[in-house]
Design brief:
This protein is an alpha+beta fold and 589 residues long. It has three domains: 226 residues, no CATH class; 166 residues, no CATH class; 46 residues, no CATH class. It contains 13 helices and 20 strands. The longest helix is centred in the middle third of the chain and has 29 residues.
Length: 589
Amino acid sequence: MCSSDLKYTQPYDMLPRNVDPITFEVIRNAFDSLVDEMALTVMRTAQSGVVKDAMDYATVFCDREGRVIAQGVTVVLMANVFPDAIAAVLDRFAGDINPGDVFIANDPYGSGGSHLPDVYIMRPIFIDDQLEGFSGVTAHQADIGGLVPGSNSTNSTEIYQEGLRIPTVKLYEAGVLSETMWNLIEHNVRVPKTVLGDMRAQIAATSVGERGYRLLAERYGKKELRRYTDAILEYSEAMVRAEIHDLPDGTYRFLDHIDGDGIESGTVIVRVAVTVAGDGVIVDFEGSSPQAKAGINSVLTFTKSATFGAIRMIIDPTIPNSAGCYRPIEVRAPLGSVVNPRLPGAVGARGVTGYRIVDSVLGALSQAVPNRVPAEGEGGNTIISIGGYDEDFEPFAFVDLFAGARGGGPLGDGVEGVSHPAVNISNTPVEIAEVELPVRFERYSIEQNTGGPGKHRGALAQVRQVKSLAHNAILQIRSDKRKYPPYGLHGGKPGSPSWNILNPGDGETVLPTMGTTELKRGDVIRHVMAGGGGWGDPLERDPEAVEADIRDEKVTIDHALTQYGVIIDPATLRADLVATATERQKLRT
């Protein structure tokens, strides 16, 4: 997150009394290392591309009450859901949580989940027969059943069409695997070898978390360690309250859009009012669209997680990523809306709404702290799923997350190839996908002139073109930002819109931003991601930066003239500064 005035200090006077700052830092960093080691374990042992390559998963350590103490390096939006998932464990299994137990859940309605592909696996950790914490991993499964391969259907109209709902249950009891639960999962997913392989990776990572915590408890003792985990929470809260107190009081409003829900025409609205008062924040989504018919609804747990993540982006990044950060933040979302649906609202593609939540909160905050918030990026990753059966009638599911066009910010241009700040997701390497699945990549590039013009330019749009080699397959697309391209800030212009094109060229078909279609062998899907929005007046852009963009073939000479008022000599590719000053004056008047 861009910032020009954040404080990168550790005011240890905010620590609770009788807490040694050096010991505090050692323990705090030990927890950070613990959850990162869990994350690496998942990456090294998972089976699917969406987990091991795209890194669509999250790792956390939570205390005995389910409060997050540390988050791993991967997806923020997933990690902040864990308190609700563990609260369901503590509620449903009160008095029946024992050493060797492992819990599993994915149900968004009552088990703290966010959508069915994200399966949460949680291991309670005991020291001297006392519950001291939980190590947890959630991972986006390659398939969990439902209408389409990959289980990211935007066409589902209720959650019962989206796949296997897993309430909070024991996957292991006293160290013994529940064969019934394991078999139930195996028989309800299209690619059981891959899905169960990813779940084994999650289970292994929770064991790594347990081992790391036990080593800390051996060194410091469980009472002392408990005291320091409490201190991490209190310290994070105190630091965030101090940051919020420095923000100008007031109510800041913003409106963002989703092009449509893929079933019913019409724009879906995310409306937010962010009220800063003293050392607290109220984020109210009153006025957002009613619950959508299609699967883009964001359950309250996910809406809160996205809101917390957005506010976290504008404050000191050195503050520990614990649940204490979110105590000063109250989230209000009307029941029955797209940001807080009722059962059986479909939620499979809730990620697109989660991104709009983040971007709308940041848009509101840009009014309070303009030098901390960049323009909107590509709108979050696009998910393209191609699934079906290969020539041997073996099932396959290609699930890839295309991302990488940040908006321009107060400190510089948007960056290509870096995913939305709410996640830390990659895309599947071309070579790996082509070896493992019946697909072929025909293009992977960025598009000229697609970054939103600004003093600091938005990142260029990314293009991925994929051919299906399967005899028959189903294509599912979840994208956005065609009708409403990424917004610019402080005079910056919007980025370019996104496109989905089936069989580009003569006879091509433009597909909607969301939906499914059948593919036959040789069909090609081309996705053009939206370009990032610009930040600041384009006529204030340094002509040397425009020159560099032309040399890098990011913009054309004509684009430099029309959007930036910079006149380039086509022979030398250098700016004529005198002519540029005259041209810019004409454009201003």
